[in-house]
Task: inverse folding
């Protein structure tokens, strides 16, 4: 390995929490003098923030680590996160991995690298050779903010509680201070994310703590400069009448909610150890739709859970159809070692799981197109983010408050990244995934 590491390439796999954590790690590396380069380029340091939610995620994690070492055999290759926690023996045997840090230790990567460099160089304090220039940190209009980590639910298919541990919530004032800093840096929209954000503050309640997700949301709503707030995935049974009433008091909260369903069959939900029924889920949907006009409601679905009969699948599909989601994220069931689902009877073949997933994906794509089409001819507010080539035309693109992507010709007068403007979409793009408009109005 080179004596002094100068260039670093980062790659993230998995959830928004992983993305948030790797972004913070990247900023810490830049402050210590590293230059960030694309992962495809030759670098002195490669950092892969791994995922283990499925077998495919495990395989992709290994592939990216091996790719990094192949691109530069002399590079220092670092594995972080869930894959490290769930397969320590495999990580230890992998010759491509030089440093491995689990979720509880990954935040200290920059310090570990300093110690590593000091050891190689014989210096007692290599920090003096590293500058604190943060100029390389990428500016942005939207930022993810992690408010908690871990999960206590132990659903029968999920390895995440074993990889991330039990629920732990960040101090509210610490979160608010971070968001104030983001606002000062030009961020207009924050996404409150975590492994199970509905449990925010719960583990401290027994000690007299009063932090909760609705209370935190209302505090974020008061921060100057922040114009939009989004929430990460919500536990369906926590979307109560009282919670929704508090949500509506935060006028900056976008009407965009992710409620993870996983299955539309009550029998399958019970085997999954999900703590709600389809009736409970439908009640939560009704509360949100009564409080907001055309809210964007998205969900996750697992196709082909062990023991899922053809009748259960059809029942589940019919329920998903009735829910009328904006987007559905569909995953064929992936067996994870160490989970209760591993020991269940009635595992389906890969072909059966894929066929059922394909049906749910097709249904979801049709629902998504219909949802986007509702806004044709309507005035919508868009937070502009970046220029993109869409159907051969260079557009400035951004998102509405309902997370529908919108675009306008990039050469339009007075339009810049970070601005919020009003437009009236006239058509969908060729693939039905973006609203296009020619007219632009003051916000």
Result:
């Amino acid at each position: 390995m080179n004596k002094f590491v100068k260039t670093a390439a980062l790659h993230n796999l998995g959830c928004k929490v992983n993305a948030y954590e790797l972004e913070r790690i990247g900023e810490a590396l830049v402050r210590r003098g590293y230059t960030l380069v694309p992962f495809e380029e030759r670098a002195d340091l490669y950092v892969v923030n791994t995922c283990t939610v499925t077998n495919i995620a495990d395989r992709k994690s290994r592939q990216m680590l091996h790719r990094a070492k192949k691109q530069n055999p002399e590079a220092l290759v670092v594995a972080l996160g869930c894959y490290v926690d769930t397969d320590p023996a495999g990580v230890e045997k992998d010759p491509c991995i030089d440093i491995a840090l689990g979720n509880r230790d990954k935040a200290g990567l920059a310090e570990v690298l300093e110690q590593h460099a000091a050891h190689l160089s014989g210096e007692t304090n290599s920090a003096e050779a590293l500058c604190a220039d943060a100029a390389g940190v990428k500016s942005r209009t939207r930022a993810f903010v992690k408010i908690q980590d871990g999960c206590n639910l132990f659903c029968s298919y999920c390895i995440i509680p074993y990889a991330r541990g039990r629920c732990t919530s960040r101090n509210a004032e610490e979160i608010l201070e971070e968001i104030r800093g983001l606002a000062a840096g030009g961020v207009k929209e924050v996404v409150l994310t975590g492994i199970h954000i509905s449990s925010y503050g719960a583990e401290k309640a027994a000690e007299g703590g009063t932090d909760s997700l609705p209370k935190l949301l209302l505090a974020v709503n008061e921060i100057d400069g922040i114009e939009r707030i989004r929430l990460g995935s919500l536990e369906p049974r926590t979307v109560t009448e009282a919670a929704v009433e508090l949500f509506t008091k935060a006028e900056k909260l976008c009407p965009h909610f992710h409620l993870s369903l996983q299955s539309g069959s009550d029998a399958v939900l019970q085997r999954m150890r999900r703590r709600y029924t389809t009736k409970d889920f439908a009640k939560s949907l009704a509360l949100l739709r009564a409080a907001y006009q055309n809210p964007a409601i998205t969900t996750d679905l697992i196709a082909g859970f062990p023991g899922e009969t053809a009748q259960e699948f059809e029942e589940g599909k019919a329920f998903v159809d009735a829910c009328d989601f904006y987007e559905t994220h569909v995953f064929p069931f992936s067996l994870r070692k160490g989970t209760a689902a591993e020991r269940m009877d009635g595992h389906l073949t890969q072909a059966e799981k894929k066929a059922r997933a394909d049906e749910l994906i097709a249904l979801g794509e049709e629902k998504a197109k219909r949802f986007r089409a509702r806004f044709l001819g309507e005035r919508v507010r868009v937070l502009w983010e970046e220029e993109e080539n869409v159907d051969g035309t260079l557009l400035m693109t951004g998102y509405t408050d309902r997370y529908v992507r919108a675009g306008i010709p990039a050469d339009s007068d007075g339009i810049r990244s970070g601005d919020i403007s009003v437009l009236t979409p006239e058509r969908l793009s060729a693939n039905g995934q973006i609203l296009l408009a020619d007219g632009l109005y003051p916000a």
About this structure: The chain is about 35% helix and 20% strand. The CA atoms of residues 99 and 243 lie 43 Å apart. The domain at 142-373 is CATH 3.80.30.20 (pyruvate-formate lyase- activating enzyme).
